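We modelled the chain as a single entity of 328 amino acids. Its sequence is:
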Amino acid sequence: MKHVLKEETKTGRKQLLSEKYPHGTFRGELLRSFRRDRQLWILCIPIIIWALIFCYYPMYGVLMSFFDYIPGKALWECQFVGLKHFRSFLTNPIFFRLLRNTLAMSLLQLTIGFIAPVVFALLLSEVKRPSLKKPIQTISYLPHFISWVIAGSMVYNLLSSEGTLNNILLHFGVIDEYIPFLTEGKYYWVIYLLVNIWKGIGWSAIIYLSAISGVDQGLYEAGVLDGLGRFGLVWHITLPSIRPTIILMFILGIGSLLSAGFDYHLIIGNASTMAYWDVFDTYTYRYGVQEGYYSMSTAVSLMKSVIGFILVLTANKISKRFGESAIF
């Protein structure tokens, strides 16, 4: 009986391999690809070398999270401590504050911040006059190319106690005294969300505009014949047509759920709002770069990356199970 089961298992495995690689094994397929597309592979050699040197070789550094690393010593000369730094971080009282801030800002970005470029792309696609559409596109793209240092200065000049917004509100009698937008934590998450939307909405909308431009125009003509208005065309034709793109971008966004950045926080954040802006990335920067606790910061970064990878796999599997688009 066991022999029969083994034979059936081998047969099933061979069948799967033959379906996946109809011309032979993976190695054989790869060699045939080298011979068939050797010019393309030669062109890719510099990119492959760059990726190996700058993307894969530095991954050796994650081993520091399992050692008490001392700068200046070789890694194998340091004491191996296993999961000590992971346990130390997870039991640290600051962990829950970092988790709360990171999840709060990431979820705001993953919901409202994710929907904003989709809505903007839909609205922009409805603008039919090129003389109006192109300037709007250009203006919306520009903030993406502004560095966070300049963006932070703009936010400070706009929202500080004696900034532009406070002066305008005081001038029109909307408020009686200055509102401390940048020194009270209750405003921080909202400001962070709005700044990120302003900075990324135009650039992120490019993908959705490309997907919208690929929708079959015959579907719109059929929709008009069926009596659909402009909103009906968007709801019943445009959105279903670009749904695979939206799902793929959402799955990729889930992978960065524990990444709330640190550029903006280090520029705009201050001691009075630290309880709201201190996230995993700023903690890693503070302990790793500024204070030299490389092992602890590496452990935090590794844990964050592993969790992000698991979240992407989970979201991808759920999407496939419900018959939607998936990355792989």
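As a brief sanity check on the tokenised model: The two ends are 36 Å apart (CA to CA). Residues 94-125 form the longest helix (32 residues).
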